[in-house]
Amino acid sequence: MDALGGQEVLLPVTFPMQRCQEYSVQGYSNQETPKITDEIEPLITFDSNNETAAIYLVREYGQSYAKYPFLIYQMQTQFRNNIRPWGGLVCTHEFTTANAYSFHSSQEDLEEYYIRCFCAYQRIFSRMGVKLIDVLSMPKTSGVNSSHVFAFPTPVGEERFVLCNNCDYRATLESAESVVINQDDGIKSTIQKVYTPGYKTIEDIRNFLQIPVQHSCKAVVYQINATNEYVVAFMRGDLEANETKLENFLGEKIRPAIITEESGIVAGYIGPCGLTNAKILFDKSLQGVNNLCCGANEEDYHFIGFQIERDFGKTEYHDFSQAKDGGICPQCKNSSLSVSRGIMVGETCQLGDKYTKSTDMSYVDANGNLYFPVMGGYKIGISRLAATICEASHDNYGPIWPVSIAPWQIHLCCVRANDAKAKEYADKLYSQLQSKNLEVLYDDRLVSAGVMFADADLMGVPFRIIISPRNMKDGCCEITTRNKSIQMKVGLNEVVKTIENMVKLALFKCS
């Protein structure tokens, strides 16, 4: 981040809720943001994103176009009111993150700088020795232009993402385009109402009426949080709704609907025809399909032979469904998509002028005109990244830290430190290694070799030097690696040079 011209700062952990509400900043009223009260401010939030605090810090500095672009970043403890913490250290109430924000005088400048930050993140993760995949992500906040996440593939991850087995297409499940290719069979039946007693689910209706999946139409019902208005999204029966796509299209937050008798919606028998008390949306999976089966908005009845353009009217189709295993890749057009899970450890976003507008931050250009700067946001979950690396690199005895981020590079074990010769050599070696700027953990406890080595495995330090009276008699000591790939004896006079070269080589491989 320093190489990008970044300036390290330390932003406050808490922020007045009233100030956030004054500037209509979204994201502070959700249940995941802990809140407290005190005698000065009626309500204070633990700022989990820091965009607003960052803007208040730099708004005076950024009044002239000559200051742009610039980047600030911080390492900070943050809090989240997780309803269901999971995954041990991966998802906790208190955690450490690295947040960065860049400010720009134009979208073009942001896009160029965004690529530089994105590449910097790739280098950071590569040097940490963990193999992550970067995937396209759909912004969860309206007004955000572009977003990517860095994820570690694992079955225990909370993030689901879509990979193409034929090309390099990668995206989160929320952002992956759902591609369905429909072919007109040329048969256009008349619409008919049929009796379907007690059959409410798509699977039951298909089996009862012997209808292929491409002719099934299901309804997914939501309510807009702000107005409680009902929204009904129709899509092919074997697809799932994508709430993020729906929210971005509507520009509103939504929730699964509570269907009451007063709503006039007949659960299990919902169809477009005659549905007047809800906003109706059609997914692209229904475009060009004749002879659909859908609800008749009447208990125990469905329509067959339904054709949207003919029986409902001209409409628009949008992508509101999730991609699925075996689906069509939007890039190479092959049926080669697979859905996997992973832990999200980093994210980069083009935030646009959403936050600078809401907080009234502006700058004057060379011609004296007033503009809102655009922002980029970048985040690394430091504590969850540490847990992810342990998940990726461990054995039955403990973690195996990559040398680039290990708490120490060398674990010096002096077995039987009450032996004068062994202790004297170990003390001397410890000083010599430190003089070479090597990071050394020195264990000279009077414990058994088994206890010492078991503790060393739990520490996960990449390289281990073992000094013992037996090895001293042979004029050597033992060098091993934590992953057990190297185990060798080295002459006492060659230890410093040997281990120094091993550490340098390991660091070079991470660079």
Give a short synopsis of this structure.
The protein has 511 residues and is α+β, with helices and mostly antiparallel strands. It is built from twelve helices and 29 strands.
Give a written overview of the molecule.
With 511 residues, the chain is α+β, with helices and mostly antiparallel strands. It has 3 domains: 6-170 and 340-391, Bira Bifunctional Protein, Domain 2 (BirA Bifunctional Protein, domain 2, 2-Layer Sandwich), CATH 3.30.930; 192-318, YbaK/aminoacyl-tRNA synthetase-associated domain (YbaK protein, Alpha-Beta Complex); 398-510, Rossmann fold (3-Layer(aba) Sandwich). 23% of the residues lie in helices and 30% in strands. The chain is built from 12 helices and 29 strands. The strands form 7 sheets. Strands 1, 5, 6, 7, 8, 9, 10, 19 and 22 form a 9-stranded mixed β-sheet that branches. It is elongated, with a radius of gyration of 30 Å.
Overall mean confidence score, pLDDT: 88
Number of domains: 3
Topology, number of strands: 29
- What is the CATH architecture term of the largest domain? 2-Layer Sandwich
How many strands, which pairing sense, and closed or not: the largest β-sheet? Answer: 9 strands, mixed
Helix content: 10-25%
Individual helix count: 12
Regarding CATH, which class of the largest domain? Alpha Beta
Poorly predicted segments: none
Estimated share of beta-strand residues: 25-35%
Based on secondary structure, the structural category is: alpha+beta
State the fourth-level CATH superfamily of the largest domain.
Answer: Bira Bifunctional Protein, Domain 2
Q: What is CATH's topology name of the largest domain?
A: BirA Bifunctional Protein, domain 2
Assembly level: single chain
What radius of gyration results from the CA coordinates?
Answer: 30 Å
Sum up the overall morphology in one term. Answer: elongated
Distance between the termini: 15 Å
